[in-house]
Amino acid sequence: MRNPAAEAAAPEAATPGRYDPFLLPSATSIRFFLLILAAAVSAMYAGIWYLPMVSLGGVDVMATSSAGCVAAARDGAAVLGDRTVLDGFLDCYARIGGEVLVAMVAAGPAWALLTLVGYVLWPAVLDRRLHPVRAADDARVRAARAEVAAGLAGSPTRVSLLATRGGAGGARVFGALGRYRLAVDSSMLAERTGGGLGERPRAVLQHEIAHLSNRDVDLTYLTMSAWWGSLLLIGPLLAGYVLLALATLATGESAGYLMTTLVALVTGVLALVLLQTARARVLRTREHYADVRAAGTAGGGALRDILATPRPVAHAAPWRRWWRGIRGYHPSARSRLRVLDDPRRLATASPVDLAIAGITLGAVQLYLGDVGEVAAVGGGLAVGPVAVGVLIGGAVGALVAAVVWNAVYAAPGGPQRWGAAAAALAGGILVGYSVPDLLGESWIALVPAYPVPALVSALVLWGLCLVFLRWAALCARTWLAVARRGRAVCAVGLGCAAVVFGSVFALWLLFDSGLRAESGWEWSYVRGSFLATLLSWPLPVAVGVAVVFVFAGLARRRDGDGPGAQPLVPVLAGAAFAAGQAGALMALIASGWVGGVGEMFSVLFALLGVLCVLLMAMLGTVLGGWAGGRGRLGDALCTTAVYAFTVLALLPAVIQVPVQGTACLGAGATPSCWATAGVAVAAAYGDGEIVRVVLPVYLGACWLGAVVGSLSRAALTRRRPTVPVGHGLPTPRRARRRAVVLAAVLAPVVVSGLCAVDALAANSGLPAERRAEIAAQVEPASVDRASACETAATNWVPSTATFRVDAIDLEGGVVALVASHEPVLAAFGRAYLDGADISHQELFYAADAYCRSTGGG
């Protein structure tokens, strides 16, 4: 993210006790990107809502339809091979998803083109409206030019001065593509002192020069153009639906048309209100930053005098004053003076910004997630609702993290209302996720049917947002205290935040969809959805990236305590624990072979697993006390997570080494046996199922112990001063610290890779031998169509539940399809048994889609 504030004017590292509002990404840039993202989403919605209007006009915008896919499958079932029928049906539905996606995003390029055209043409329009006068030789103009040149000394920015007869409102800077103009009213230049400009004109010019120094002129006119581009796109849509509503009322058509029309109107109006709010916040914030920069120049005192001078206010009705405040793009003089007195106000974590970010995220996920669901099967699960959530959530997460970094930098030790901020972000997501959906059901439509799951889902979303905000605050506090290059560290932090929040948002999507996947409601669904979420691939990705970034900052500290003194401790502890696990497992295996306790092996193995979990919790308590303490719970959680990831990264080897080693020792320890054992150990890292299952257990045990250890140390510290655990130990050198950080990074990478590969791997379900047996035993045309469709619907679970389909009765579902009276369903089943290169996810998706399209499911 580019900071519109001038980088050259700010020091590279934060100075303790001094706040520099231009060090990190400014609130202007954050709000600008929020506006652009919201405008792009609004354009997407406009494109969707144009489709019903076009359809009413008799124009078919979709080249492919589900009816066409069904007809082609029925025609092909009689003359084509089974695999050809199945592949053709899946490809047809994939084309539908692609066409819907194109229809959704087609309005985006149109909005972008309108925005760029407005941005380029705006300076020409202003040139005509301002009516500049020719006064090149005027002494006042020469003095103004000298003032501008002095203010931009050393800057590559070039600006031409235009004198006007009063149309600039004092002074105004505008331009595009690096060509800027500064329009100045001739009447303002009349005030002169000693042959030069007076203090008030100089203060006004310094304010405009500050806009150039802050590099927000382009952002200003891109903001205005984005708003007008959205209005030109949404305005005709609203006008069309108004006419449609009037026509519906006049002709007495179905109430369904009227409801669709009203929903479209409300959605369009709310989109414009959201964009207007975002636009006003961008334009007002830029004025504050220009004031702050201009206050540091020679005209800063005069600027304060101008703002403090009372202005006559014409009497106006309350609604006029309210409307003036809504559409005004200059903040009030009182608010500008407050910001000049304390620029830290600019860095406050505003709930409005977080709500706008949440609304945008929820709205775009609602539509693109539906399309991703259709496109997922045709693409071999390469894309889908969860993948869409990770990508879109990542973009929003970077902006949210920038807000948090600014807030923490402005008040490192001050109180932060992260709970309220998380409520604003989560509430915005739920509002955006409740927008009427033409492709399916929005979140709010399911609340009356599932009130308890909706409440549970909302609370879980709030908790995840709170955890993310606190993590981002911990990152900012940790790195801004030790980094020499604040901007570079912030850029890396925002990249990590994008990955973390995208994965966190994906976790909520998995949990929420799991709650609503059943027809009824029981508390057991919460447990099932929670367990499915814990076993999903976004969890290790989110935790791994979050832990690595924080721990790398903790390892750079020189406080003589915890990870800052001995960053190698959690890595060595994890390696030692893994070695102990391997030794215990080898002893157990050897005793089972030699001592005759083979019948009790499963019981002893389970006891060993329980003992390992207890030891993980105990060592987590020790590490939590070592790294934690009062105000350092985040440090403790991060340190114990590094320890847990180290153990998990070694877990495949811990299991295979004792098994293979014991076998080779019993077989005479031949070189060929050891070579085979080495291959088996390496191959163990190709299957991450056990790591994916053990990950939440080990992390939960370690974090529980870390909380106990950190709180215990905090209680002891209140009673009496204690000597740090790491006190007196030699501090590692810089090269050793880098090696430690590399080891801490490698462990989560290995664990995340194992979990992701295992979770995303396509599963064919039935081995080839069993497929052949089923094909030989099935009696054709013995299952009616309704039963086959019901079985297909039962076995197809949408990918939002676990991002892969776990068939409830895979073999029975295949049998029902092959034995179906319906020729197309039977062809689908036979193609699968014949070895078609598809997974059972695609099989049951195709069968369920066919049944729903023909009214049989």
In short:
The protein has helices at residues 27-56, 66-79, 82-105, 107-130, 139-151, 199-214, 217-251, 255-295, 300-308, 318-327, 333-341, 351-378, 385-410, 418-432, 451-480, 486-515, 523-534, 538-554, 569-594, 601-627, 633-649, 651-666, 671-684, 689-719, 734-760, 768-777, 785-795, 799-802, 810-818, 823-833, 840-853, and strands spanning 132-133, 159-164, 171-176, 179-185, 192-193, 196-197. It is mainly alpha-helical.
What features would you highlight for this structure?
two-stranded antiparallel ribbon; disordered N terminus; 31 helices; mainly alpha; Zincin-like
Tell me the total number of β-strands: 6
Helical content stands at over 70%
| End-to-end separation | 49 Å
Strand order of the largest sheet: 1-2-4-3
Over all CA atoms, what is the radius of gyration? 32 Å
Q: How is the main sheet built?
A: 4 strands, mixed
Could you say which overall geometry the principal axes of the C-alpha atoms support?
flat
Number of helices: 31
| Fraction in beta strands | under 5%
- Mean of residue pLDDT? 79
Which stretches are low in confidence, meaning pLDDT under 50 for 5 or more residues running? 1-16, 378-383, 720-732, 799-807
Give me the secondary-structure category: mainly alpha
